[in-house]
């Protein structure tokens, strides 16, 4: 089914008892974030904040379940969309001869009918027109204490290439910098940035229009990894089985969905100097620090009379974006198999690996070296090129059963044979690499080995006991093992002195049991919950550069430094970001007001477990003290 705007979608969710209305006033500055964070991490309903101090209610947490995500893309289940995509690609791949082409013709012709349809006149999104635009009319959130300001977090940014005419809809956060000015945070790897560079080369002002809301499938389509030659609105039409009607903007010549909730028309002038944008509490769970980005000038704001303002928050996972990523896994597995590696049987991006930091893939293995081949192919495939860790296991191992994946790692991996260490592009939000947007990447072949791949020099490792790990280094504040999984993994919590600390001192002091072949020791910062595997995955994949932080010990063990590099010696060459969480005042405010919100059982703040990880500073951790020794 399709939805005519977010009010329609919110009503549908409410009819399914999957939406909670918050009728009391809740402040878009920090308070909405704190309430929503408690709900999303406890599997709660979508939230509609009705009193935001503006004329617009805020809809948040609308995508944070399989059922809501399926409804948002117009399907009864996520598997339904994935299966139809698979059938379509099977048709295309078989269309070699004339007979097979005709047999698949009905399916192919149906695709041609899904292109966006332009219509004359105005759409619902233009019922109210503000020609003297003021972004202050919108309930834009300030999400986290050290954010650089208020951010529009679910914008659909429409651009067009000045030469080819190809269009793009992307999602790039927008920091409010004035009543009619925002930043435009498009990364160098994104299509919007390439369009900007093309307009800059042409020496012309670039038309840009940003829409909010409309049918919720548009929001998903803007995040989907579709090829540039395919319109995001064609994907949206395919998913909801209904063509998207487009209307022309009032102050520029771009076309937008008629049923959008709110529209901001304007332009970016490539001749203008870039402005400092940020910091922002990002989906990595750390702040992305200030950098230079273009300026978006708003020339007109339009909206429908029953408009709803959509928002999301990102931060330490799991957050709402985890369900969007899961949808992408389901929908785009078929084209990934066809275009990159047909032996792929499953693909999973754990939420605690923040999508691009960790990817788990299962393959149907038939020849030696196939695991390495798939890892190498994925490191060069579209947005998968930004992946940092890729683990390959043998089908039918379930890619979302982390215990079985861990068992495969310790059963089938020999470091000298099964680790593929390389360098390449990283997401620009990655903070762990010495170099911006480039660093180490690690492929791990945890497949069952064929006779040609086996070596005899591999012995099992006895389960370590805490008493075996007698560590003399005084920086270590705690020692844990994954004893419940019977795996030879030791977790060390480390408190580095203010003057800095060289982790190699700790490595040299490790007792013999931790240097045994097959043993893995992971160091995390003091304050981390070493009993929480999800936190460990988040810290390990986020705080490490595989080319720098994985140490192969002489006796065959591995040591992984997943600590913050802010207090590391030698000094880390870039500012190190702080952990994203609410401040104590906001937490206490939500505690006091919980009964007013009308959201049922009290949920304690997820930020409470993160406060011990905060380091002195604001969005960036303070640099080392001058008396470092």
Q: What's the tally of helices?
A: 17
% residues in beta strands: 15-25%
Tell me the major beta sheet: 9 strands, antiparallel
Shape estimate? globular
Bin the helical content: 25-40%
CATH topology of the largest domain: Pnp Oxidase, Chain A
Top-tier CATH class of the largest domain: Mainly Beta
SS-based class:
alpha+beta
Q: List low-confidence stretches.
A: 95-106
The CATH architecture classification of the largest domain is Roll
Mean pLDDT: 91
> What is the CA-atom radius of gyration, in angstroms?
25 Å
Superfamily (CATH H level) name of the largest domain: Electron Transport, Fmn-binding Protein, Chain A
Features:
single chain, alpha+beta, Pnp Oxidase, Chain A, UbiD C-terminal domain-like, 3 domains, 30 strands, 22% strand, globular
Can you describe this structure in just a few lines?
The protein has 629 residues and is α+β, with helices and mostly antiparallel strands.
